[in-house]
Structure formats: structure tokens, C-alpha cells
Amino acid sequence: MHSTKKRKVTRPPSKPRLTLRVGIIGHRARAPEIEADQSYISSLTSVLTVIQNGVVEFLKDHDVRDCFDVKLTPQIRISTGIAYGTDRWAQAATKALKAATQEGDCEWRLELISPAPLGVAAAWAYADAGKVGCADYAATWDIMTEDADIVTALEARWRSLPATSTSQTHPLPLPDGFSCQSLFATYSDPPDGANSLSYAHAADFQLRQCDMVIAVWNGLGSRGPGGTADIAAKAKRLGMPVIWIDWKNPQKEAHFIERIDTDEAIPPIDGWIELSGRPIAETPAIDGRIEDVLRHTLMPSFDESQDHGHGPDHHGAKVEAATYFSETKSEYEPPGAYARMVTLFSQGVGAWAGSLAKRISKPGASLTAKLKLWERRKAPSVHWARSAWEEFVAGNPDEGNQKAPLDGMLWSRFSEADQLAVEYAARYRSAFVRSYLLSACAVLIALLGLVLSDALSPEVKALLVVAELAVLLGIYVMVRDGQREHYHAKLVEYRALAEGLRHQAWLATFGEFALPVTQESRQRWVNWYLRATSREIGPPEGTLNASFQSSLIEAILKFEIIPQIAYHQSNSKKMHAVNHGLHSTGDRLFGATGIILALFLILYLVKILHLSHLFGSDFETVLKHFLDQIKPWVGFFAAFLPTLGSALAGIRFTGDFEGKAAQSEIMATALGGFKARGEELKVRCDWMSTRTFLLDLEAILSEDVAQFHSNYGRQPLALPA
Q1: Got the DSSP string for 224-260?
Q2: CATH assignment of 19-297, given 3.40.50.450, 3.40.50.720, 3.40.50.1000, 3.40.50.150?
Q3: How far apart are CA 508 and CA 526, in angstroms?
Q4: pLDDT band for position 367 (50/70/90)?
Q5: What is the pTM of this model?
Q6: 617: Cβ–Cβ under 8 A, 6 or more apart, which residues?
């Protein structure tokens, strides 16, 4: 059981704030009468009102309140791309709902995603609007961006666009030497389809931020990548609920789309999905389905009947989440048996003994201070310290308010999960170390009772029996507590959660979460919690251009990759040393047993072969007396030393120190490659290369967590046998 000296219990881990992210997509206005049609705004407002009412009612459910912090107002984030048409309707609908919603019911946020830096996107919008005869887009552009809570602009794919400068005619800068009229002719069709490709990137980025999608759509296929049909079909393939507002008849009641018939899987971003039929809408209106959709989207799985690959202790994601929220973490935890053993064998017994002797000989300190054998030592750590986290956030290239949730909410949740993972790691590892060593102690007590049987009084013999029973009972209670409290399962899950939250610090800065809502993801409460946290953080604000990307990669190199390399290099050496120390100590114990038995056998042969006269007349008497005296102790050491060696072998096998050392070597090598790749990338950033780098880095770090899961996930505490 875990030592709890001077425990000071802190508050339980934080529950997430209920946050729903809704993407709005649709066609661009192709005629003035469509642009001015208020029925689109009314239909969007009606759908969003149904969603809001559903969220408010949803939060009253007892199960929902167990998973979310009800003290915080639920939040709905509206995400829409900057184009010419639907974005303005989404902005108008969100603004109306912000004004009409009672305080405490719901908080609305509008997030605009631009397919290019704002000046470039404005030029495209001007050209598009002028080409079809709509009103000047410049008149509402500033209003729309000012009303937004977040504006994220992606790096322009159109490299040939001239540098922008301030124009006297329009509130936003246009390319040098061009008026709005000349843009219609010159820039309405960018070279190599760059315009469409930029919109496709923006749509792909938007989908990664969303839980559900509202499509203002005519039901027909797209003309190219990034079109409404393309985005809607991708959303359905990703498992998102899609609400359909008919573009041709916006007054018609909105419905959830059951399926969109396509002939192919989700294509790469520069392709699009061909439709083989119109979307099939479900019959029930959205207000009859919204609660079920919210439950599927926002809640973890309630399934307690199946083992979904998380071991026999898996009880359903909702139950496991509730267990996490009831945890308490002690402020002070001394190192346990595992940490002491690692310190001993990583230093080596000789070095440890020398350090102890040097400490005892030091004048001036008390004996208690001199015998602090297991004090904590500073070493490279895989976990970010608070100061390093603050430095990373301070260097975050986000231009808006993303730094606040990163520095506050995300740090708090990471530190909570990390501290619990460290505590349960100490409990689990110390428990199996103690169980093996106490088993050897039980054998030691039994052997002492046999060896000293003639010399001990009946009272002392009874005490030895009681002592052995107490040791065996202690092993049983310790293992039973570990099994009942699921030390190994919590160690694995809490470490996976802490690592995932740490990765979000830099993934969120580029709008990457890679956590779609699927049935499989809902069956792991860790995935549910990570997704709920990512909803709260939201996308970055600013232009995600080369400068933004370079700053982000530099921060990742400094605060993630380089510290991880140092940790794995140090950990590899330490685990090799511990594995070698345990192995060599076990070998010495078995070797010592063989030497003792061999010496006893030699002396016994001297006796029975009557060779003692060769060593003098009195030697036979001395030898006989000596053999009689040592015989029980030979049996003692012949039994105890192999038992102790077996205990060390059990610790070595269960701890898998050799496997940990090999995994750290693999990770150090892999991260070294990422370091070189990042150094090269930060001087010539582009959107897809940066995104690929981040996702590849997250994948390799996740593989390390998966290996950790493999090592411990199927090793519950068990009685040593």
C-alpha cells in the first residue's frame, strides 16, 4: 500500500464545460435577390434555436450533469467559412441569438474561417460579388469580422498574388495596382484552381472543428473541391450529424440527413466527392431528434457490458469518467518502493553504499538527516514544468484569446491528470515490488523458524508464525487493494489522458485535434474528455502563414521534442542500469548458493571418505562439529538465496526494464529525426508540410503511449506465485 505521510488532499479533477461546435456551410449568393432573402436567416435562426433549446434541456439530465460542469454556462460555437453568402446569414443569425438568449442559458460564439489572408479573401469576394451583380461586399466585410469572436485565416495557396497595400476606396487592402473593377477581370479565376483549393483547405479545417453541420444546400453535386456537397458528404463519412436546409426552398422544415449516396470514399483535399444520388433526409423534424443527437455527440458511451479492449476492468466510458472526477490527489507523495529500487540499482550497490558512507561521515548533521537514503533527485522529465508551459504559451503565435484557455484551463487539466498518473504509477509499481520482496520475507521467517527451532522458546516460535501470517496477509491486502482500486488501469488511462492534453497545447495552436466523434472514440472516456476539452479551446486566431507556422514549430522543438529526447536518453540509460543490476544481483545470489553448496559438499566428502587425517589428528573432530553446526544454515541459504533471486527476477520481468530501455531508445531516435525535420521545416514552412509534421509527431508520441498501454494494460496486480 502507498505511503501517505503528510498527505494534503487537493480538489477533484475538473469536469469540462458543455460546448457544442456547429459548422454552417452553404452556397455562395449568385444573385442579388438571394443575397437579400431574409428567409435563409430565419431558417438558420430557427434551426439554431432548436439546437440551443436542446442543449439547455440536455444539461438538466442527471447523467449529463455527472459529466459536465453545470456551474459553467453551456457554449455553442458557430463555425463558418468566409465566402459570399452563407457566412453573412450565419453571422446575422448568431448575432440575433446572442441578443435574444437569456443570460445563463447559453453563450454564443462566432468563428470565421477564411480560405486565405483577409485581404486576399476580400479580393475574391469582391470579384465574386461584382461578377454576379450583388452589392459591394466591402460594405459589410468589416462588420462581419468585427462581430466574430475568432477569425482564422489560412495561408494562401495562391503564391503569385502580389503584396497587399491599403486602398483609399475599400476598407480592406487590395493588391497593389488593382481596383475592385479590375479584380473582376484579372483575379476572378486564380491560376491553377488556387481559389478552389484554398476553399477546400478551409472546409477541411472547418470540419475538424465541428461536431455537427448545418448545410444550406440545393442537394446537387459540387463543381469542385470545397463545395457544399463535397463538405456535407465528407461530414457524413466522418460520422457527423448533418442538418439540411433546402437552398431552393428555405421555408421548408429542416431535417437531419440520413445518408448521402456517393460512389467513393473521402478523397484527398484536392479532389471532391461525386454524388450518385440526392441526399436522403430523415422524416422526423430536428426538434424530435436533437436530444438523441446531442447525447451521441457529446456524451461518453454508457456500455458497461462489453470489454472494448481495455481489459477486464473496463466498465463503460461514462462510469470510468465519473471515477476520474471523484479522484483526489495528495499534495505530497514520498517516493515508493519502486523509486527506491530504481535509485539503488541505477546507481549500483557500490556507488550507493559509498554515497551512504560519505553522508554518515559528514559532520554537523543529525543521524536522521544523514540517513535520508531515498531523497528525490532532479532528472530530465518528460512532463512540462509550469514555468516551461508558461513560456510556451507566451510564445504562442495566436493573435486572439487562445492563450487564456491554454494557460489556465488546459494546464489545470493536464496537471491534474499528470499528478494522478504519477501517483497511481507509484502505487502500482511499488505494490508489485513489495509483493515480491515480502514473499521472500515470508520464506525468510519460515526458514528462521526451522533453523532456530531448537534454540527458540514456544512463545518466540508462535511470534514467528504470527509474523509470517502478517506478511502473507499484508501481501494479500496490498494486492486486493490494487485490484479493487484498478491501479494498473488508472495508471494507463490517466497517463494517456495527460499525454493527450499536453499534445493539445501545440495541436490546438494549429487547429488540429484529430479526434472525430465515433462509436469507438466514445467507448474510451479518455477520447471523450480530450474531445470535450478541445471544444472549449477552439481554433487559433490570426493568419496561419509561414511566420505563424515557423514560430509554432520553434516552440514545439524547444518545449516538446528536445526535452523528450533528453528524457528518453536518460531513461534508456537508467532502465538499462536497473535491468542489469537486477539481473546481475540475481545471478550472484544463485552463484552464491552454488558456492555454499559446493563447499559444504567438499567438506562432507572429506568427512565420509575419511580424508580428515591428512589435515591432522584433531581435524576430524573439528570438521564433524563444524558440519553439524552449519548444516541447518546451509539449508537456510540454499533455500532463501534462490528465493530472493526469484523475487528479483519477478520484479525484473514485471517491470520490463529492458523493454522500457529499448522503447526509449526507439523514441529518442525517432524524435531526433523529428528534430532535424523541424529545424529544416521552420525555415520554409507551407501549410500541408506543417500539418503533416504535427500529425506525424502526434502519431509517434501516441505510439509511445500505446506501447505504455501494452506494457501495463494487461498486467493487473496478482499474488506472487
Answers
A1: STT-HHHHHHHHHHTT--EEEEESS-TTSPPEEEEE-
A2: 3.40.50.450
A3: 17
A4: low
A5: 0.84
A6: none
